[in-house]
Design brief:
By secondary structure, chain A is mainly alpha-helical. In chain A, 80% of the residues lie in helices and 0% in strands. In chain A, helix 1 crosses helix 6, helix 2 runs antiparallel to helix 4 and helix 4 runs antiparallel to helix 8. In chain A, 45% of the residues are buried. In chain B, strand 11 and strand 12 form a beta hairpin. The chains are: A mainly alpha (244), B alpha/beta (304). At the A-B interface, helix 1 and helix 5 of A face helix 1 and helix 3 of B.
Chain lengths: 244, 304
């Protein structure tokens, strides 16, 4: 398994997609943070917490995972990958774990950057800042969600196989379907895979209404359920599929 | 240098069948590939060659039958990429990754020493282009990279699906030499192609399939000579009389300039008829069919 993991991480490092997506995530997240902390007033710790946790990193990691797996079919590299590692179940586990690990690393770097830049700006404006314990709390929650989204992206890419359909589908589901659900049936929406359950773990709702969120422990279990369900579906498809 | 017992079949296909929906891609196919020999796997496009190779590699699930390496399915091999190297027809690479990185990924996945990457790159002549991104490669360079990937694990069996596609004449010559060299080192090599002339110079044995079914197998000479369909060319002092005698004996006679072509008869049979007709024979010889002709005959037989 460690060889498969190393190979998947090597794949990530040896194309420009990874660097481009992570660069974009960093730039967009920092831009939003700088504009927000410069132009808005931060009167409570919750405001600051939302600024440090509610960035776009998770979305980029999700897309990275989906593109990474669907790209195996797009470039037909899935054949050489499976020839080198015929156990498709182990391959899927390795792929999901490697993107979860990548998500953790990327999230750590970006969240740390956001915290440093944000704290400097807020301090200079005599606004509320967070103590180190709170920052640490935000950090681990972000890392858990990023790991989840990295693995989830891989599983979506396994099921969908088309990069375009995966990307468009994720964006529509995240920004249209789930937002609509939050507006119409928030009790259902808080269980949703992209905004609902992850929002419960990081304790930040995209619309600022904390009453819509699951408790972090419950949210983590729901995320585990989503990953397990998609893993079962992805594994069944991958194992049963003829590679013609 | 590798040495394998030549009597042992390294690759065994037994009653292999694969159906896609309503289409029988491969039907009850059986043949062996021996170590130390190059076996040409021949057939027209759509004959089932790629399906057979993919079934052998565990990429598609056979509807019936088995395809094994020394009795084990590909996925049952302890170290698959060290036992079998494959170049498939649509072998593809991430366009943004360099050849070296592509091989590094495969070497890591297959648990092969990192030093093998440079060795195989040199072996296929891509050492100087190793750090270029694959999207800038020509078709021939991609084929060489595919070969390099197949050789990474120093495998005992090589499966090459249409490896000469897109190669220029020097590339084809290189491929022939490489294939012969691999077999000389004791490897079993199975090379599929629909371009018969391109493999006829490098194979020892041939397996011919059409419409998913086996049509012929054996040594190249046996299939090329058309043992099952002899053809004789004969010239004599009185071609008209000889032609009439042959026709009376049930032969179909074709005229080719000053010779008569007699499909379906051996020189001995033609000679006996000429003697009986008291015609002086000036020349009598079996006509060796080209591989192309043999192939066309083999695939046409069941169409009519």
């Amino acid at each position: 398994m460690s060889a498969l993991l190393q190979a998947e991480l090597l794949k990530l490092r040896t194309t420009r997609t990874f660097a481009a997506l992570i660069g974009s995530a960093t730039v967009v997240s920092l831009l939003v943070l700088v504009l927000g902390t410069t132009l808005s007033d931060f009167e409570t710790e919750e405001d600051v917490r939302a600024a440090f946790a509610g960035d776009f990193t998770g979305l980029f990691i999700l897309l990275l995972g989906a593109m990474g797996m669907a790209g195996e079919w797009r470039h037909k590299t899935i054949t050489s990958t499976i020839l080198a590692a015929p156990d498709r179940l182990r391959l899927l586990v390795a792929k999901a774990v490697s993107y979860a690990m990548a998500g953790v690393v990327v999230s750590f770097v970006i969240t740390a950057a956001l915290m440093i830049v944000g704290t400097v700006i807020l301090s200079s404006r005599d606004q509320v800042t967070l103590d180190s314990a709170t920052l640490l709390d935000i950090m681990w929650r972000n890392l858990v969600v990023s790991a989840y989204l990295g693995a989830l992206g891989v599983l979506i890419g396994t099921i969908v196989r088309s990069q375009v359909v995966a990307i468009v589908g994720i964006l529509i589901f995240a920004f249209v379907v789930e937002f609509t659900l939050f507006g119409l049936v928030p009790d259902v929406a808080k269980f949703s895979p992209l905004n609902g359950a992850p929002g419960g773990v990081i304790d930040v709702s995209f619309d600022g209404d904390q009453t819509d969120l699951l408790a972090p422990g419950i949210a983590a279990l729901v995320m585990l359920g989503w990953v397990s369900t998609l893993f079962a579906a992805g594994a069944a498809l991958l194992r049963g599929r003829d590679l013609t | 240098m590798r040495h394998h017992a030549p009597a042992m079949a390294t690759v065994e296909i037994r009653e292999l069948s694969k159906r896609f929906g309503k289409v029988d891609a491969v039907r009850h196919l059986s043949f062996d590939v021996q170590a130390g020999r190059v076996t040409g796997f021949l057939g027209p496009n759509g004959a089932g060659k790629s399906t057979t190779l993919r079934a052998l590699l565990g990429l598609i699930r056979p509807t019936a039958g088995t395809a094994t390496f020394d009795g084990k399915r590909y996925e049952e091999l302890e170290h698959p990429s060290a036992a079998v190297g494959a170049v498939l027809e649509d072998a593809s690479f991430h366009p943004g990754r360099s050849a070296r990185n592509h091989l590094r990924v495969l070497a890591t996945t297959g648990r092969h020493p990192a030093s093998r990457v440079d060795e195989v790159l040199s072996a296929v002549g891509l050492g100087d282009a190793a750090d270029r991104r694959v999207k800038g490669y020509s078709m021939g360079m991609k084929q060489r990279l595919g070969i390099a990937a197949a050789l990474l694990g120093d495998p005992e069996v090589l499966l090459l699906d249409e490896p000469t596609n897109g190669l220029d004449p020097p590339g084809i010559a290189w491929m022939r030499g490489m294939v012969r060299e691999q077999a000389a080192q004791g490897r079993a090599v199975l090379i599929s192609s629909h371009l018969l002339a391109e493999v006829s110079q490098s194979v020892d044995d041939v397996v011919v399939i059409a419409n998913g079914e086996l049509r012929a197998q054996g040594t190249l000479d046996a299939v090329l000579g058309g043992d099952d369909a002899p053809e004789t060319e004969v010239s004599s002092e009185d071609q008209d009389t000889l032609a009439a005698a042959l026709t009376a004996a049930g032969a179909t006679v074709q005229r080719d300039r000053d010779k008569l072509l007699v499909p379906g008869m051996t020189p001995a049979q033609v000679g006996a008829i000429a003697a009986k007709a008291q015609v002086t024979v000036l020349g009598l010889a079996p006509r060796a069919r080209s591989l192309e002709q043999a192939f066309m005959a083999l695939t046409a037989e069941r169409r009519s």
